[in-house]
């Protein structure tokens, strides 16, 4: 119980620091959306101070000193009301995030979980059968696949499977003729559009899980308690899963917590290459256009998801390895 309370206290403290940093960082960037709008208008003649003030009010640019802005910002965080997006004016930020989040969670989240499970199991198999083809095939294949960057793999798949053979769509999350909803046509189109981005993420991330689990488990197989379990005549499967893999999975579990927390942030490069309307693509648009409200909402959501994922991993650590509770 003390262990869990310590972790909760650390989570609250870190969350406050992240929220404050999320307030400060956008304000350190040079310029503002109002400056960009004024620069466009000034091409047709000088812009008066009244016109600039009207633009700032229309865009909802924060006013007052930093302390007042910080108070307004904390109120927005509590109420989950982040104002209107400058880029997609007058659409509210909450509405934009609500539209993009399901695509990222389903695509990146589901693929990340599949890659972790498959990679961990293949790593266990490779370590247990080390020196055989069951070891060489997944490790060499995983190393080769993970050597290519996200965008390079995405471009290759896009060119061959999208443009040359025309098997899958090349951009978007669903067909232009489909209406979003829980119907067969839309769901089929959404799955068809998600296949290429999903394959890209799976190929480039699977190798890391395989190699990480294999290397850690080989080290664990040399420990005394594994030798003692084998000497007692336990089944090889029991020794591999309940003794060796249970302890070897802890470093992989930490990495999985970070990866799972980063799911909300999406995969910016993959979503950009495929024009997939997820959180990563939305974040790129926000940064490019200095959209403070949208940036702050996305950064805060990504930070909170990472912190919560790591908190859950810490609690799970205490369950799997009681030594961490002391």
Automatic annotation (TrEMBL):
The chain crosses the membrane at residues 105-128, 140-165, 190-211, 256-277, 297-320. Keywords: Cell membrane, Membrane, Transmembrane, Transmembrane helix, Transport. It is found in: Cell membrane. It comes from the Bacteria. It is a multi-pass membrane protein. SUPFAM superfamilies: MetI-like (SSF161098). This is Peptide ABC transporter permease. The keyword NAD does not apply. Belongs to the binding-protein-dependent transport system permease family. The keyword Membrane applies. Gene3D superfamilies: MetI-like. Its main location: membrane. Residues 101-313 form the ABC transmembrane type-1 domain.
């Amino acid at each position: 119980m003390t262990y869990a309370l310590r972790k909760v206290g650390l989570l609250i403290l870190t969350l406050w620091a992240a929220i404050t940093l999320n307030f400060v960082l956008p304000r350190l960037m040079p310029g503002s959306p109002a400056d960009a709008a004024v620069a466009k208008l000034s091409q047709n003649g000088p812009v008066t101070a009244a016109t600039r003030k009207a633009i700032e009010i229309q865009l909802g640019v924060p006013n007052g000193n930093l302390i007042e802005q910080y108070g307004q910002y904390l109120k927005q965080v509590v109420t989950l009301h982040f104002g209107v997006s400058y880029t997609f004016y007058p659409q509210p930020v909450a509405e934009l995030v609500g539209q993009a989040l399901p695509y990222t969670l389903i695509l990146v989240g589901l693929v990340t979980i599949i890659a972790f499970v498959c990679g961990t199991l293949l790593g266990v198999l490779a370590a247990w059968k080390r020196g055989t083809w069951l070891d060489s095939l997944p490790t060499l294949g995983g190393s080769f696949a993970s050597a290519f960057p996200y965008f390079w793999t995405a471009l290759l798949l896009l060119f061959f499977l999208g443009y040359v053979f025309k098997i899958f769509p090349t951009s978007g999350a669903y067909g232009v003729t489909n209406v979003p909803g829980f119907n067969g046509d839309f769901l089929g189109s959404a799955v068809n559009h998600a296949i290429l981005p999903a394959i890209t993420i799976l190929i480039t991330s699977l190798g890391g899980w395989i190699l990480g689990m294999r290397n850690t488990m080989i080290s664990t197989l040399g420990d005394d308690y594994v030798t003692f379990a084998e000497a007692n005549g336990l089944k090889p499967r029991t020794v591999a899963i309940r003794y060796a893999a249970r302890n070897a999975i802890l470093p992989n579990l930490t990495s999985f917590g970070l990866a799972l927390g980063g799911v909300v942030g999406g995969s910016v490069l993959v979503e950009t290459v495929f024009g997939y309307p997820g959180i990563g693509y939305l974040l790129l648009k926000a940064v490019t256009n200095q959209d403070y409200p949208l940036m702050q909402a996305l950064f805060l959501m990504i930070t909170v998801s990472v912190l919560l994922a790591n908190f859950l991993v810490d609690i799970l650590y205490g369950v799997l390895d009681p030594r961490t509770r002391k």
